[in-house]
Design brief:
Dna Ligase, domain 1; DNA polymerase, domain 1; 13 helices; globular; transferase; alpha+beta; metal-binding; binds magnesium ion; five-stranded antiparallel β-sheet; single chain
């Protein structure tokens, strides 16, 4: 904990849904649910209008539909979320060089590195207000909630207090006063299981937790968590803001039009990507020790797993073998829309391959499934040769209905077309390199 309120936590409000409302003027002020469109899908984000009906993240699409049948259910446009996130992160970096992104819509900023005249409550409050105005501006109208406090823990807690479109500054010295009445679940690392264990011990609030001795907590929750919780119950948190390190890695990834469900196909794709990573590494004279895979599920949850070798490699076959093993541990039920393989921890030298002379595996035959004929997911961007840009309002029975509007237009007209109308096209951004 610092003596000044110099850690800022920014959290965009209902981010995915807010981007959709920005780009689809007819949905502004209405319930919007991103995710949960498929049979087994879950809700990724619900707009505040939909939250009023009790719809929340991770709820099944079926339940969301039952609670809020008149909501717009959209399949999500990751490219738009990523672009918008980049603008926000840049605005944060313009304020301070020390920015730690936690996800597309959340980051810590170290105001102590921002070169401000002082870190008084009045000063950081002004900085927070200006930052929220700036985020609204660069994103074309999105709102963010900000918390500013003397530690990461308190800044994050503070950013939850005045959602959406609000700000809370916790003056140094008042941290415990704020925390004591709160449920223990606000403490990072206290999930449902820990919360239940504490509840059985009669501990519900942070004030109650503060009365428990360190030894008792350790015997209740184990060493690591017990010590950690004892400290956080006293607002003791000295974790620094760590700027994203320059990622020195080589990776290859692919996104797929049709959600992949076939594990053998996924293994084949990873193998192909791993070989390409190996080729690129050898071309650049790199080798690396840490092999990672990235898997994005149908609901945009992104999983990554990595494994570190005892010595560096640049061998595609080795990278592929590790990538496939990492995939083996993941639950991909519901489908996968992105797969990737990367190697990091790069060194510009290669050690003798410890795996010896593993025989090169036979080439993997990879055939991607045809994109489904009804490739008109709700919410997707489209362009019509005459009508211009719009988005898929719905589809079925060979017909796709499009609303022609963009972030810059008023709510636009709705038109229907045959699904195979040659004048109608899906719009995707050019792939990034
Ligand atoms: Mg958020």
């Amino acid at each position: 904990m610092r003596a000044t309120a110099s850690i800022l936590h920014l959290d965009l409000d209902a981010f995915f849904a807010a981007v959709e409302q920005r780009d689809k003027p007819s949905l502004r002020g209405k319930p919007v649910i991103v995710g949960g469109t498929g049979g087994r899908g879950v809700v990724s984000t619900a707009s505040y209008e939909a939250r009023k009906f009790g719809v929340g993240s991770a709820m099944s699409g079926r339940e969301a539909r039952a609670r809020c049948p008149h909501a717009a259910f959209l399949s999500g446009r990751f490219h738009a979320y990523r672009e918008t996130s980049k603008l926000v992160m840049q605005a944060l970096r313009d304020l301070s060089p020390l920015v730690e992104p936690l996800s597309l819509d959340e980051a810590f900023v170290d105001l102590a590195a921002a070169g401000l005249d002082d870190l008084d409550v009045a000063t950081v409050t002004e900085v927070g207000t200006e930052l929220r105005r700036r985020v609204h501006e660069v994103t074309g109208g999105l709102t963010a909630t900000v918390g500013i406090a003397s530690s990461k823990f308190l800044a994050k807690v503070a950013s939850e207090l005045d959602k959406p479109d609000g700000m809370t500054v916790v003056p140094p010295g008042s941290e415990l006063e704020l925390l004591r009445p709160m449920d223990v679940k606000v403490i990072p690392g206290v999930g449902p299981a820990t919360r239940e264990r504490l509840r059985r011990a009669g501990i519900h609030t942070i004030a109650e937790l503060e009365l428990v001795s360190e030894d008792e907590l350790v015997s209740l929750l184990g060493q690591a968590q017990g010590h950690g919780l004892w400290r956080l119950a006293r607002a003791q948190d000295s974790r620094p803001v760590v700027a994203e390190r320059e990622a020195k890695s080589i990776s290859v990834e692919g996104t797929y039009d049709a959600d992949l469900n076939d594990r053998k196909l996924m293994a084949g794709l990873l193998t192909r990507q791993a070989k390409e990573v190996g080729t690129r590494m050898r071309k650049n004279g790199f080798s690396g020790r840490t092999v990672s895979i990235k898997v994005r599920l149908h609901d945009f949850t992104t999983l990554s797993r990595s494994s570190t070798l005892s010595s560096p490699t640049d061998d595609g076959t080795t990278i592929a073998r590790i990538a496939r093993a990492l995939l083996g541990d993941l639950d991909t039920t519901g489908g996968v829309r992105l797969l990737g393989v990367g190697v990091s921890g790069l060194a510009d030298w290669v050690q003798e391959d410890l795996f010896g002379d593993a025989p090169d595996e036979e080439e993997v035959e990879v055939t991607l499934p045809e994109p489904p004929r009804r490739s008109w997911p709700p919410g997707a961007d489209v362009v019509h040769d005459e009508m211009g840009p719009g988005w898929v309002w719905g589809s079925g029975s060979g017909v796709v209905t499009v609303r022609f509007e963009t972030a810059e237009t008023p709510p636009g007209p709705v038109r229907s077309f045959r699904m195979d109308d040659p004048a109608l096209h899906r719009w995707e951004p050019p792939p990034e390199e």
